[in-house]
Amino acid sequence: MVVDQLSENDTDRLFQAFSDATRRDIVRRVSSAPFSVSGLAALYAMSFAAVQKHVAVLERASLVTKEKRGREQVVRANHEGLQRARQLLDEYEAIWRERSSRIADILAEETEQLGDALP
């Protein structure tokens, strides 16, 4: 299970990275094609330094990689990191679906017991 494989800090970094709309958009863009940090900065109404900070958060969460190419830093999606994030979310979804199913079973059982108890 990915939930058991990721440390609490790794999980926190993933959720922190995805908590911001700009970072989610950067991941979406670099999943299609690599972008330089300056190319990404041109897409947003914020400073180059702010975009660099967003990329650093994504890099710490292993969602993107950054490679120096000449004077530019090229950002690419880290597909292994994205796969781990997807697996983590799938596992949380499975946990909640199981809990919902158990709640539905308990409610059905209680309703049946109430029905049996009525004259």
TrEMBL record:
InterPro entries: ArsR-like_HTH, HTH_ArsR_DNA-bd_dom, WH-like_DNA-bd_sf, WH_DNA-bd_sf. GO terms for molecular function: DNA-binding transcription factor activity. It holds the Pfam family HTH_20. SMART domains: HTH_ARSR (SM00418). PROSITE patterns: HTH_ARSR_2 (PS50987). Residues 3-97 form the HTH arsR-type domain. This is Transcriptional regulator. It comes from Arthrobacter psychrolactophilus.
